[in-house]
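Reviewers of the previous submission asked for a worked example of the structure-prediction workflow described in the proposal, so we include one complete record here. The input consisted solely of the amino acid sequence. No template or homolog information was supplied to the procedure at any stage.
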Amino acid sequence: MTADRSMVKPAADTSPVRSLIAVDGIDGSGKSVLAERLGAAAADLGINAVVLAIDDFRRPVDWGRRPPGDARSEADLYYEEYYDLPLLDQCLAAFLGGDASVEIPVFDSAAHRLDGRRTIVFGAATVAIVEGVFALRLANLAAGGALIYVRTSFAAARERIVRRDTQRGRDRGDVIHRITARYFPAQERYLREFDPLIRADVLVDHEILGAPRIVHLRSEHLGPELSAVVSRALRAFATAPRSPAASEVA
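From that input alone, the workflow returned the following structure tokens.
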């Protein structure tokens, strides 16, 4: 006997609903620390989360040479080529679609090349925390993700980046060149084109290192679960250790 298809009910979808939240801001604003606090807060509340760092999606760029006819500046290359945002957006689509993992190339920052591949395991995660610059350029996040923006002046960020990167062994002149020729001009372009301060669900002022201040928090977009995670993380962010290794990060 063949069952009447009109009488057959589809099985209920029991897969968990997954959501995205991004921590955005210029270099030196404290994004990395806050993203870590979000992950810890989610775990404390029994929520499985995975962190996707935009820095893990970098690509080799030849800063000194351009193909014939390519007159782009270092800031343009940094904005348009350095980060493989399409690949990260594909990973976000896979996460939202219920995939268990994704595989991405590994960027060797010392050799400035791609070297091997690694797997990002989503597992039972229901929240993906995206950390890094240019978050609103990711279509999946801009379409429905929540956004935390960490606001810091360029002057304060410059001081933090120079201290952070020279303590890591980089030449001071090279660090200043990267700031003035790549980081800040590209981030100024992003601010002009996407206006993340206006679009942020949570705006955090972090002008004074170790003393973040909530400017606004729109809980209606976050929902109760993410609101609880964000509130807990922001309290921990305010009490984060003020050492260069822990606080003066991207």
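The mean pLDDT is 90. We consider this example representative of the routine output the project will generate in years two and three.
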